[in-house]
Amino acid sequence: MLSTKSLISELGDIPREWVFEHYLQLNEKLCGQDVKLKSPFNPKDKNPSTYIYWAKSSGGYRFKDFSTGKTGDGVTLIKELLNLSTRGEAAFKIMTDYNQFILNNKEDYSLREFKIQQKYKVTEFTKRPWSSLDAKFWTSFKIGSKLLEEYHVHPLFNYKMMKEFGGELKELVVEGNHYLYGYFRTDGTLYKIYQPMVKEHKFIKVREYIQGTDQLTYDKKYLIITSSLKDLMAFKKLGYADTESVAPDSENVLIGTHVMDSYKLKYKSVCTLFDNDDAGIAAMIKYKEKYGVKGVHLTIEKDLSDAMKENSMIKIKEVLTPLLKKALK
After folding, report:
1. Whether the Cβ atoms of residue 174 and residue 158 lie closer than 8 Å to each other
2. 6 domain-assigned
3. Is 246 helix (H, G, I), strand (E, B) or coil?
4. pLDDT confidence bin for 3, thresholds 50/70/90
5. CATH of the domain at 86
6. Spatial distance between the Cα atoms of 65 and 70, rounded to a whole number of angstroms
7. Residue 318: which CATH number?
């Protein structure tokens, strides 16, 4: 890497980690670790929802802001952060600021040692019987045992995670707090862990999977893309006969083009039904712009499952049905 003692004229000569450290005013140097902080785009963000992470595929740092749905590399970060029109403007700003930085500082980024941190991976889990607390939690959203069984949701006693650190394997065992659930595929494969009472890391992704795929029959007219498995089950509880549903890993993860093309061939129409917050609205707009898929903006509560918790199904259907008809035209 070019030493920071010389002025640069190419964006590629600027250390990617510098962009994040400088503009986000991080209080730690990026040396391969992931960092979580409050959203720089959303002043209402009360809990950290922006992740700065090392992306192996691109060999550099990237960001993902869950409160707004914004994601990308350092250039995209500056374009969005400073409200610039193009990536070219952002790149020019970065080069100008970096050259000023190296004139005023002695730090040499070429000497920094990177140690890419391994992430914990779920290796084991233990199921437990259903309890009255589980029943109270799920039925508050009007989701009963039949739906939980159909979508292979099962309570867990604990799960084990492991990662390599310093040449040794580190083990972490997480015990259940009465509200710990595993999401499984039809073949018994665990793909996600749900911890609804935990502030951070409510979801632990184990494997890539578009939720609800195993339950699709492709013999319905319409497909509804929801924001979560809980919302998917809540929607199915409403009993719309001509619909099926799926849910990506999160609203911020766009379903791939080839999969969306397949959905459009198999269903008369497709629409999204995401959360009533900045991230949900941003995701709805992305699906509309990229795939021409209309979105349903349900404003009763933050999301459909919360709406089911706080309102009668009759009231929800009175509001939701005309919105669905409009989006699925």
Report:
1. yes
2. no
3. strand
4. very low
5. 3.90.580.10
6. 5
7. 3.40.1360.10
Q: 74 is written with which tokens?
A: 């350092």
Within 8 A by CB and 6+ apart from 142, the residues are 234, 237, 308, 309, 313
Task: Report how far residue 282's alpha carbon sits from residue 234's, in angstroms, rounded to the nearest whole number.
Answer: 22
Q: What span, in angstroms and rounded, lies between the C-alpha atoms of 45 and 322?
A: 32
**How far from 36 is each of 1, 28, 105, 121, 226, CA to CA, in Å?**
27, 11, 26, 19, 26
pTM: 0.72
Which domain, by its residues, includes 188? 119-209
Among residues 83, 111, 139, which one ends one of the domains? 111
Q: How many domains does the chain have?
A: 3
Task: Using alpha carbons, select from 197, 195, 227 the residue that is nearest to residue 212.
Answer: 227
| Residues 68-105 pLDDT 10s | 888 999 999 999 999 999 999 999 999 999 988 888 87
Could you tell me the pLDDT band of residue 4, with boundaries at 50, 70 and 90?
very low
- In this structure, what token pair is assigned to residue 89? 């403007």
